[in-house]
Every structure is written in structure tokens, then in C-alpha cells.
Amino acid sequence: MAKLSASLEQVILAQWEDLDSSLSLACTILARYRDWESLVRLSCRPEDYLTPEDYFRNNAAICFVKKLNCLPIKVDRQAAALKKWFESEESCYRANQRLFPYLPGLNLEVDPFIARHIAGVREVVEELIGIRPPSLVEGRFGTGATFANRGVETTVPHKIASSPTLTSDCVWFLPQFFGTAWGRYTATESDLVFVPGNRFTTVPKTSVIDRPIAVEPSLNVYYQLAYGSIIRQRLKDRAGWDLTRAQDIHRAIARESSLTREFATLDLSNASDSVSRNLVKLLLPSAWFMPLDALRSAKTCGLPLNGRKVDVVLEKFSSMGNGYTFELETTLFAAMAIYACRVNGKLGRLGIDVFVYGDDIIIPDDVVKSLTAILSYFGFTLNTDKSYSGGSPFRESCGGDYFNGVDVRGSYIKEDPSNVKGSIGVVNRVGTNREKILLMGGSISMRAWNRALRNVILPFRHFFGPSRLGDAVIWQSDETWWRARVKNSIRAVRAAVPGDIVTVPFSLFKPGVVLACALYGTGNTGTPEGGRVPEIEGVTPRDPIRSYRAGWLTCS
Predict the structure, then answer these.
(1) Which of 353, 342, 364, 381 lies closest to 121, judged by CA?
(2) Residue 83: CB partners within 8 Å, gap ≥ 6?
(3) Could you read off the pLDDT of 148-175 as tens digits, one per residue?
(4) Which residues are within 8 A (CB) of 505 and not within 5 positions of it... i.e. 6 or more apart?
(5) How is 423-436 classified by DSSP, letter by letter?
(6) CATH 3.40.50.150 fits 89-147+195-403, yes or no
(7) Could you check whether the bond before residue 104 is cis, i.e. omega within 30 degrees of 0?
(8) Model confidence over 169-226: pLDDT tens digits?
(9) Alpha-carbon span 197 to 278, nearest angstrom
(10) Domains of the chain: which residue ranges?
């Protein structure tokens, strides 16, 4: 069982005392009796409160520990995630059965009313991304793990040096692959390794459940990411919807709609795991479906079931971990939302009256009923706990929570601090809650902030600066608190900067790997003594920072 440190628990208790609400009192009582499981299962509905401040004080109490992974809770989070995964597979199975008669070329008897609506959504998909992708695509490396690459061995040179893993259907991409720098190295130095599918694992989500993900074979994900980029560019070019800016737009529309009630913000339950194979085959043009289908994993391997590892043939088309899942689901949900708008007499345009980012959907309030029906038939379930419409004063999208135009998103602590930056992060989460209450015109003690500050070791306890520097500094808008200096007209503040950083030197790899990395533009550069041309020294793996030291960060 996980263990919560006494120092962090004291900060949490002080935060609840500062928030001074009915739910913060309930949290305190449950914590005193060590009933952490009941505590993290508490809920807070914005409709039950009259003012933004009342809602915020109660909701922030729950949010503060809801994602904390060190609470002493007797819950198997992976087992809960696995249960949810199989439920999604069952939902996809039902959707596949329901949609099968409507697949093109079968000529089975179908409901003409439903067939007409399916055709309408399919036309919108074609409008958004075109009838076919490019005939040749340029693969790219991701930053995460692959079927065989784990831990620190997820850098580009590690992936090039290891034998590429792929599924049997991915062989259609081998002619392209062997024309790449990675492919040329593989042809002479390593072998292809065929695997049945992706690898099951989980990552933390909340204190009571993990999030299931699928780790894809390295060659599959190399081209999956390429198709994800192509879909992203098509949405921008053909529909004017730039996903790199979409989150900011979503938050702005959510804030405004919490006042006007013009738009509803919708969220789906397990959206990525609910995209069934027949749905994609039904809605995508065949020239798009064929390469995406060839790159997907048809099986998930290593599912822990009854004390053994099993492989499962998938009913879903793709899941989180697949390099194109996010862009694909954005396209499908956007097409459904646009079609629902148009059949209700709306314009139906991305960025105007439809806004979609993954499974975050914003549509006109009077279209919710129609879209919900479409989503339900296609196998998706609206998350009623995170969807807001009608007269509700609350709207939420892409990490922005607004109650009558006021930002009421509570801060989360995800882990017990293990280094100075983590300790500063706790201070900043407490400080953010306090700042929001002050902006609402309320009052709040600094008890929790001072207690969190005492957990930051000297001299970092006195390093204040702007929030844009992240948890390298303790956030403070009053610049008189900053330890600042100006050098060459550039202002910097005292901050926690990386001390010992792990670097994987290229000397560990064969010359062919180093050459391939140079062609991909991968690697850290260092300037040798004597002012010679910079040399590529190595690469930095994920989570490379081992320690922090006092230093300076530019702030203007």
C-alpha cells in the first residue's frame, strides 16, 4: 500500500482548513479516520452552488488529492483499469455488430433512415481530410516507449539500434522504410521482429484507477505518427482548424458560454477505447482506411487475467498509444458534430459553431440532443459528470473550468514531492487556489502556503518569480519579491535549475546509428574548445534530471 508522508499530509489538512467549506470539512473528517477511499470518491456538482466562490472552495478540496498516487488506499488501480478496458471492448463489439450491415459492398437490408445519416457523416469526413492521403509518407519518431523500447532506452538512437518491431500487416510499409536512414541501418545491422500487436500497460489517472494504454511496435508507430501529422495538416488546410491552437480556443469558448449558455461542452467516457473498427471502416474513405488499418495493432498482448498474461483480438480500431488515434478521433467527432449542426439548420463549421479537440466537443446548446443520439448509435457514451449544457452556469473544456465566466479549476497534486522542484510545485498549487479565491473577492488564510513553503529546502525557499517559469520558482506576481539581476539588458531571476542531467553519449552506439541520427537531426550539440564547429555529443532521455541547483532563469 502507498504511503503518504507526514509533511505532505500536514499541507493537505491545512489546505482544507483554509478552504473552509462543507466538503473541505468532510475531507478533513474522512482523513482523520483514514478513510481515504471514501474521500477521493466524493463529488461536487456546480449546479448545487449559487456562486463561483462557493463551488470553488468545495471542489478545490476534492481536486487537491483526487489524483494523488501515494494515498494509502486498498484499491488495485490496474485491475480497475483492466475492467474498464474490457467494458470498452464489449461496447466496441456491440457497435461492430450494429454497424456491420451498413458496410459498403455488402448489400444487406438496412434501415434507410440510419443509412442516410451515416452517409451524411461520411461526406463530412471526406470534406475534412479529403478522399485519400499522400501515396508516400515520411515517418517520424515519438518520444515514448515502443513494444521493445522501455525506460531510458526510448531515445531515437536506442530505437534505431534495436531491431524494429512490427505487425504482419505493416509489411506494406517496408519498401518506404528501407529507403530511410533507419531502414538502411536495419538492412545491414539488425533484423525485423514481427509481433502479434501492441503491449498492454497502464499509467496513473486518479487515486482509484489507472488509465489503460497500448504501447505500439516501433515501426508501426513510426508511420502512425506520420498519418497523424497528415490528418492534423488536412484539418488545418481544408477546415481551418489548427489543433495547436485549439485548446486555447476551447477554453475561451467555455468561459464565454458559462455566461451566455450559447454552447454546450461535452466529454465522452473512454472515447479512445470506444472507436470500433467497423465505425472507422464505415466513415473513412477506403484510401484512408487501408493504410490506417494496416498500421493498427489487431491484438493487445500481455493483458493480466486470472494470474496469467493473455493476448486479445481487438474490437476497437485504435487506442491511446497509437500515433494517429488523437487526430483520427478528432476528425470523427468533428464530422458527427458538424453533421448534427447542419441537420439542425446550423452552419456546421469547425472554429465557428463546432469546436473539437480529441473527445472534447463544443457545439451549440440546442444541438446536444441530436449529437448525443448520433454518438450513442456509433458506440459512444456521454460522460454526464463532465458534460454541461442548458441552464448550467458551468462549462468545462481542455482543462478550463468556468462558473459564470470565473475560472474555478482547482489545483491537483499528483505525487509526494521527491525533489526540490516537486516541493516548489506543492507551494504553487496551494498558492494558485489562494489567488483564485482572492480574485473572486473572498478571503483565505496563508496557513497552507506557509506550511508548504517550509517543506522547500534552503536556499530555494526564497526563489520567487513569474508563473511562466513553471515550478523552477515560487510564483509571485509582485516583482519586489524576486531575486533578479540584469545582464546584457536581459533580466533573470534566481531559480531551481537542472543540476545533474543524464546524457546518453553517442560513443555507446555504432557509427551507422550516429549517422542516421545526424540525418534525422537528433542529438545534443556541444561546442568544443578552440571554437571549432559544434559536435553532436549525445541524446537526452526522458526524465533526465537527477538533481537541481541554484541558478538563473531568463524572465524577460
Answers:
(1) 342
(2) none
(3) 999 888 999 999 999 999 999 999 999 9
(4) 537, 538
(5) HHHHHHHHHHHHHH
(6) no
(7) no
(8) 999 999 999 999 999 999 999 999 999 999 999 988 888 899 999 999 999 999 999 9
(9) 19
(10) 6-68+412-456, 89-147+195-403, 485-554
